[in-house]
Amino acid sequence: MSIFKKLDSGEYERQWKKFSPFYLGCGYGHNNVELGGEEKFSHCYDYFSGVGDIDYWIMEEVNKLSKEDQDELLSILERNKKVADSITLKKVKKLCEQVGYPLDKTQYIYRLKNKHIINLINSKNPKETHQQILDDISFDPVTLRRKDYVEPKVMTDEEMIAEFERRTN
Fold it and tell me: Helix 89-99 vs helix 114-122: angle between axes, to the nearest 10 degrees?
C-alpha cells in the first residue's frame, strides 16, 4: 500500500497530539532537535522524500507505547518545540556577530544542533563556546565537509597523460 493510502486510511498520521515528527528529528536527522531522548522513539515515525517531503507518525508503533512512554514522547515533543521556537533569527544574528560570521550567513549557526545553539545563546562567552563546539562536532558548518575530508588531488595534464599511458600499456 502506498504511503498516501496509508495516510488516508489513518495507518500513518501527519500529526499526533498536535505535533509532527519534525520535533523528534524526523527527516532532518542530522539532528536539528536532538536534545536527548528522541532516539527511543525513532521507530514511531518515518518520512517520504519526493517532490515534497512528508513526515508522518506510524500509528501502530505510537499506539504500542505504554501510557508512560506516550507521556515521555509528548514531553520531549513539547520541550523540543519550545527550544526550536526560542531560537529566533534575531538571536542567531547576534550569535553570528559574536562569533565572527557575516550577518547574512546565519545558516552557519543553524547548521549546528539545537542543543549547541542553545548553549551559544546562554553562554557568557559565545566565541569560546563556539570554538569548543567546532572542536567537538564532526563537520565544518561553513563548508559542510567532514573534518576528515581530504581534498582530491587534481592531476596536471602531464600526470593524466602518464596515467593514461600506464593504464593502456
Answer: 70
